Amino acid sequence: MPSEDVPVEVVITAPDHEWMRRLIGTLVRERLCAAGHLQPFETVYRWRGEIFEKAETRGTLYTRASLVQRITERVRQEHPYEVPHVTAVPLTAGNPDYLAWIIAETDDGPAITR
Fold it and tell me: SUPFAM superfamilies annotated for this entry (predicted)?
């Protein structure tokens, strides 16, 4: 896992666009992520021996590495899938002002409820 204060991009997928929009809004308000993007896409996957083809929504979040576990726990509790997709990759390069903004707009302290 990268250093706790490294900015990361978190990807979450879900079958419901509105569910994803509400989740991202909540995570931004709680300072668990600085921003999020929503993108519709088509997916093909195997689940328990069956092939599925579906429309889903991809949420891309910008946060710090130390918050990924809290985001993952939240998604696992609230997501409609039994095994939701949550992955994170470190942002190792980019506009330094943007990367600093991600850190400034997130909080690695106790959960904030607003």
Answer: GlnB-like (SSF54913)
